[in-house]
């Protein structure tokens, strides 16, 4: 009937009542035979090579291994430096000569780790090389962006670039940001943000002209020196990129000559409708405060004059 584990089993072994005597032995031989055959398949797909003039790299690579192996075209194999597993190349089998043992593989980009020209090799089947993963300017993913079970400012949950900078989550909706061990801000479960360090805005210099343009995407605080470029009188335009709720101030300085007047676009509104007039003495400094109520039609202004 069949040979299992070296024993020839026949129909006679399974005649009525006799099979009861050999049942355990039979299945023991079947399982042993399965193990032997599995081992044979595995052994047919591993090999060694003494080829010592093939450098690790991409492209076609030819190694001489043992004859009679089970390598077949399109099978993925990994060829590893027998002296160091850090040096290896993974590719697909182009051809294998079972009589001579000549194995040719094609190594794609991304199929190489390490380098060098090994004196001997270990070859075995492998999975195909996957697509290249993302990279980060700050460094490798394993050292630049790391996750931990963070619960407070000294035990971060998401580290960025270094162990002492990143984010932590201590509860539902409670997230903090830490820079070099210093907690900068923290959210509450309601979404409210508490800043634990100063929030600074660099003043944006505006250009004096007949019409003064300002972009609220650029900042919250602005400076301008009124001079010859705008003539005796100029107009402050409606800002671009205004969003309701934004506020800030504009520091207005007279030049050495003074007497530079400032007019205002129609959407810039004043308390009681009374338009503020700037100081006109040379080098005088006034402060315009603004608040965006309606970005298109209503930006509130107030004026404090002649700071000395």
Describe this entry's structure for a reader:
The structure is a single chain. This protein is mainly β and 308 residues long. The protein has 4 domains: 2-44; 47-125, Beta Barrel (Elongation Factor Tu (Ef-tu), domain 3), CATH 2.40.30; 141-195, no CATH class; 204-304. It is built from 2 helices and 24 strands. Mean pLDDT is 86; it is low at 135-144.
Strand and helix map with partners:
Elements (H helix, E strand, L loop, with lengths): L1 E3 L2 E3 L8 H27 L1 E4 L9 E6 L11 E6 L6 E9 L5 E6 L4 E2 L7 E5 L15 H4 E3 L10 E3 L5 E6 L2 E6 L2 E6 L5 E3 L8 E2 L5 E2 L8 E6 L6 E4 L10 E8 L6 E4 L3 E2 L15 E10 L3 E7 L4
Parallel strand pairs: 16-18, 17-19, 18-20, 19-21, 22-24
Antiparallel strand pairs: 1-2, 3-9, 4-7, 5-6, 5-9, 6-7, 6-8, 10-11, 11-12, 12-13, 13-14, 14-15, 20-23, 23-24
